[in-house]
Amino acid sequence: xxxxxxxxxxxxxxxxxxxxxxxxxxxxxxxxxxxxxxxxxxxxxxxxxxxxxxxxxxxxxxxxxxxxxxxxxxxxxxxxxxxxxxxxxxxxxxxxxxxxxxxxxxxxxxxxxxxxxxxxxxxxxxxxxxxxxxxxxxxxxxxxxxxxxxxxxxxxxxxxxxxxxxxxxxxxxxxxxxxxxxxxxxxxxxxxxxxxxxxxxxxxxxxxxxxxxxxxxxxxxxxxxxxxxxxxxxxxxxxxxxxxxxxxxxxxxxxxxxxxxxxxxxxxxxxxxxxxxxxxxxxxxxxxxxxxxxxxxxxxxxxxxxxxxxxxxxxxxxxxxxxxxxxxxxxxxxxxxxxxxxxxxxxxxxxxxxxxxxxxxxxxxxxxxxxxxxxxxxxxxxxxxxxxxxxxxxxxxxxxxxxxxxxxxxxxxxxxxxxxxxxxxxxxxxxxx
Length: 433
Prior knowledge:
Blueprint: E1 6-10, H1 12-17, E2 29-33, H2 34-43, H3 49-65, E3 74-75, E4 81-85, H4 101-114, E5 118-122, H5 126-134, E6 138-140, E7 156-160, H6 163-172, E8 174-176, E9 186-191, E10 196-203, E11 208-212, H7 227-236, E12 243-248, H8 254-268, E13 274-278, H9 295-302, H10 304-316, H11 325-330, E14 334-336, H12 339-342, E15 350-354, H13 362-369, E16 377-382, H14 398-406, E17 412-417, H15 424-432
Parallel strand pairs: 1-2, 1-5, 2-4, 5-6, 7-9, 12-16, 12-17, 13-14, 13-15, 15-16
Antiparallel strand pairs: 3-4, 8-11, 9-10, 10-11
Helix pairs in contact: 2-3, 2-4, 7-8, 8-10, 13-14
């Protein structure tokens, strides 16, 4: 006996998170409350990612509406029936005020439930889900692009190695390896007999390990302070690894390492034409327009954490004609740009760093990474546990999703940094607060 058809009532924030989310609910009924269209209409003129996603969602609904009557239901490509529904006054619950669009959207689900439908209210807003549950409605998060943060790929495995294999790895720089780890996976090996440590990176094409000397030269004046940072530099400095993610708590050096590697590859190696650095403006995906001053002044307010890293690097990086951040910017060696201005650009031959990437949705991450032109490298840094967006969490943000999605690709590398090197106070704060 076939399972009864489910009715999924979609909240506005789901379509803002992913404009084509309707396609995720195959062979069921998908309902978009009329109040969702009202909210999309209000958001569509915004110049940020929310505005673009609102316009995308409206175009999707418009295209579906041309195939039939949205009020009675239109069949769409995934086998589902799509409807737009208006809440009727006789179905209102006295428990919910009608001065908010959120409540009207929930009441649409409530109405359909009392019509005998098997209703699921889908929302990224936890408070809206709690309200719906209080009315007896089954409420769920949109989990199409969710991962389990507790099992997030770390990029590094710690293993014991025999003294013989340890000697082979260190002396020849290589060791045959049959482990089916993802491409560019790294290992921290222990020779327990002689109390030795070694780091190696997997070359999955040749099925061998490549030895990484932890006593590497400084990179733009910065030296790795632990094995994880050494692995990070290995991935950051390899042009063949075109996409790198660095995940870690405050003080682990994610941004500092990324900028130092970028400057070396632009100023010394001439591998890339410049370093392009950006970070999302949060909360609520605002554009930089709300910040005071002209564009450069706005950027200076918003980019201050990056300036702090650059100042630290330049204090140690002895490079002629490069003594201040202004000199770097004026020479076009580094560009600071708002995320919203990256969209629509083609960015060939650049070293692109997206800081605080945990505040981006999977759709936004896709938009940014797809901007990378021929010969570019993209580095994304962030802490999935420090999220400012109300509709993202450690499991659903774009950075976490990217780590699990790209794991195993030859052009991708990842490392989770766990050791804070900022100060004992900073490490304690990151752990306790």
